Amino acid sequence: MNYDPIAIFAEWLRELLTSWNLSDDFATVILKLIGAVVVAGLALGIFILQTWLERKVAGRMQDRFGPNRVGPFGLLQPIADALKMVTKEDTTPESADKVSYNIAPVMAVFAVLMIWGVVPYSSTWVGTDLDVGVLYIGAVGSFGVLAVLMAGWSSNNKYALLGAFRGVAQLISYEVPLLLSLVIPVFLARSMNLNEIIGKQGDVGWFIVFAPLAFVIFFISNLAEIGRTPFDLLEAESEIVAGYHVEYSGMKFGLFQAGEFAHSFASAALISILFFGGWQPAASPWLGAVVFFAKTTFFYFVIMWIRLTLPRIRIDHMMAMNWKFIVPLNIILLMTVPLLDYFVKDLGATRMYAHFGLNMVLLIGAIVVAGRAIKKSEPDRVRFPERAVAVPPKEETEEVAA
Hints:
72% helix
């Protein structure tokens, strides 16, 4: 069933506006503004649901109830939290740079909402169908780095500044493999249009089979970009108080949290679009939207699962993994995938198996090389003697036991 109520409503509204003697261009501008408000409202509405869902899932995984006091099953808890943040005192450090300080949380949310503006929810439901959608996502996603830097610097707080420096180092570093991994589905689809990438997967198969290694790199880099465990060093409250937003309170702090939650769901949406066919195989707008949000919710659950399972890693380990392992592996993948595709592009289904085999060979080779490099590296007790634990002699141990 290809009944499209959104298209019907948009056409009716356009006719209504033109009947008021408005020009077609002005009517188009009004329709675009209404569409932007609807998409932004949808993203923020999902954020409200996320705050309840994530706390419920965390409660079940940690053997507790989660929100269960405000409303049935705690469904009204996000509204209570929003009211608390709105009514909380909005403090601003006296020596802070007021303009940058107040713009930073808005920019954090704005960057994520801009991503949702080009996401195809179904074959016809898409905010703006850009021919360079992947390039656009890479560009607006970088705004989050500016928000972190502005928040930490403008607060005039040494802990916030240290948190911002560390956060920016993390975000900029992992943007490199994130953008490089985006090139693989773009190359396989021969397009940067998100809807065309989804359509191509309907013809040849999901790109997770063609490029599982690119998917793994994209997924890991996304976790680092959104600051989720085990890469949640953007906050690291146990080490630097609360990270770059330590001086924020009230709704400004809530905007940072909204940006993080919305970015998590947007990342899950991009995973489903680039590697798992998006709204495919449904042709109906209604069914396509259901399929798309089902896939996105599944990957968001995986992101939550990882957050609630893994511990935080050290920042030197995180940076070393990026620059010494992920980035070189991604560069090798970028060099070998086009070369292989040149020879197998006309082989039909064999093309898929060839790409899958190449990814497996590269993954196994990378693991072997990394394992040997780890074995050759000196252990911490050699490089840092003060970390070595003294082992008492056997005789002394037996005397204590006796």
